[in-house]
Amino acid sequence: MADYFLSHLRELPFQTTSEISIGSGVSEPTIIRFVRLLGYKGFVDFRNELQRKLKEEILPSERFQGDFLVNKDIENIAKSMLEMEINNLRETLKGIDLGQLEEIVKAIVTARTLYIIGLRTSSGAAHALGRILSHILPNVMTILDGDNRMYENLRAVGKQDVLITISYPRYLKYTVEAIKFAKLRNATTIAITDSKLTHAAQMSTYDIIAPSNSQTSINSYTACFFVINLLTAAIMKFHSGKEMKAVLKEWEECLDPLLFYQKKDKDSSK
After folding, report:
1. Would you call 123 helix, strand, or coil by DSSP?
2. Which residues, 6+ apart, have CB-to-CB distance to 202 below 8 Å?
3. Where are the beta strands (DSSP E) in the chain?
4. Residue 9: what are its φ and ψ, rounded to 5°?
5. pLDDT digits (tens, 9 = 90+) for 44-98
6. Which sign does the torsion angle of CA 102, 106, 107, 108 carry?
7. Bridge partners (DSSP) listed for residue 118
8. What letter does residue 171 receive in the DSSP assignment?
9. Which residues have CB under 8 Å from 28's CB, separation 6+?
10. Are 154 and 130 in contact (CB under 8 A)?
11. CA torsion angle for 41, 47, 49, 54 (degrees, to 10)?
12. Domains and CATH numbers, the chain
């Protein structure tokens, strides 16, 4: 079954279980069991995922829906884009395994060092996640460069550590190399990406799928930032309210002397 799938990836998104059964020589129930073993609820979910992946392989210039922008006014463009963002969020929430999320949070909170990698267009999301978690966790390292510096920063990664990668089209080999490097050293790996079929999701210990469907040539990161906020909330919940408040208060006291926050003068005339 696996051999047939790998050699017919272009045809699978448009085939029925009956057609696959005839072509592969296995029964339809076997096909359904197989896709469930891959982590899907059923064949339809698997086929929809393949169709999305096939669409993502198209070059940005080809994905760009010029007619969508030309033939609509700004109000309709805004409404249409909002609907797509809402759908990305719905798909993300529907696909999250809450039991697995608890495991992910526990791994993050108990990690000796938490490494976060996001390259090129994914660097913004990685930077945000790193900044947020560095306020509430002791050892967080954010890596935004996919070159020799990445390996230098990962040189101490080990069994007690966690690596979170954020990976969206067009996927970069450095992200995959980072996961391989961390796995060789027995670190826990977590992939935030847009499809279970990505190398990052397939290779990692855990994956969180946040679709990036967009009507422009640029990926949408709305669902990705929802996952970032959800992880933050879950991590805060993991700590007791009193403990979390103390951590945040300590952080505020560290920043206060540095005048990071604008304050109103007691005497407004000054």
Report:
1. helix
2. 196
3. 114-118, 140-143, 162-167, 188-193, 206-209
4. -60, -30
5. 888 877 776 665 555 555 454 544 455 567 888 788 888 889 989 998 998 898 8
6. positive
7. 166
8. P
9. 17, 18, 20, 21
10. no
11. 170
12. 1-57 (1.10.10.10), 94-254 (3.40.50.10490)
